[in-house]
Amino acid sequence: MSNSGQRIYPRKVKTEAGEVEFRHMTAADEAAVLAFAKKLPVHDLLFIPRDISEPRVLSAWIKEIERGGMTSLLAVKGGAVVGCGTIVRDELSWSRHVGEIRMVVSTDVRGTGVGRALSQEIFALALEAGVEKIVAQMTVDQRGAIALFESLGFKAEALLREQVRDKAGKAYDIVVLGHNVAQVRAQLEAYGVPAAVS
After folding, report:
1. Cα R_g (the chain), whole angstroms
2. Looking at 4-13, 18-27, 156-165, 182-191, which range is the least confident one?
3. How far is CA 63 from CA 47, 80, 124, in A?
4. What's 192's DSSP letter?
5. What confidence tier does 1 reach under pLDDT thresholds 50, 70, 90?
6. For 90-120, what is each residue's pLDDT tens digit?
7. Taking the chain, what is the end-to-end CA distance rounded to the nearest angstrom?
8. Quick one: fold of 3-192?
9. Do the beta carbons of residue 43 and residue 139 sit within 8 Å?
10. DSSP 8-state symbol, 48
């Protein structure tokens, strides 16, 4: 893809919570992201494959960003991290055309458009990277997150029963949502509006 269409960060976005800055996550953000993660309800962490409130998990995440296996954006308001979104791809797998969106937003800014804006930024980065299909997963009771992704064109593809357990040992079902970007892109190009997905 040409550089002319690439998104530039940091980028400021107006939301109902006020102005939020989106920027790429780096090793310098480790302490701020850890503080953010530790404030999240444990249930919100269940749809992320690893517990990001654990320092060793966060260190591994930073290493994966530096290696190029993940792209992570932070939503920052008033100097504090209020959200993070990641697009994960495995270039060595049979599914290298698929990207997974992982996203979580602070409880104090939910319902203010921060999550929607962050998900749109991550979605756009996935498109720039040439991802053909995007998936997201969450526990079935996270209705707000499901509605947000469905509004972006995601559809339920799978239900994984008792897929995750919280720290108390309670099991939860996970729903997997998917978005076939390549198919949507082809349809838009057929209608003469390819720029809508760039």
Report:
1. 16
2. 182-191
3. 21, 22, 23
4. T
5. very low
6. 888 898 899 999 999 999 998 899 998 998 8
7. 10
8. Aminopeptidase (3.40.630)
9. yes
10. S
Phi, psi of 91 (to 5 degrees): -65, -15
Number of other CB atoms surrounding residue 161 within 10 Å: 9
Kindly list the domain boundaries of the chain, sorted by start residue.
3-192
Residue whose structure tokens are 């990207």: 99
Tokens at residue 33, please?
């992201």
Contact 45, 53 (CB under 8 A): yes
pTM beyond cutoff 0.90: no
- Rounded Cα distance, 142 and 100, in Å: 17
Q: What 8-state DSSP symbol labels residue 194?
A: G
Q: From the CB of residue 122, how many other CB atoms can be counted at a distance below 10 Å?
A: 24
Measured between alpha carbons, how far is 103 from 47 in angstroms, rounded to an integer? Answer: 9
Per the structure block, which two tokens stand in for 40? 């999240």
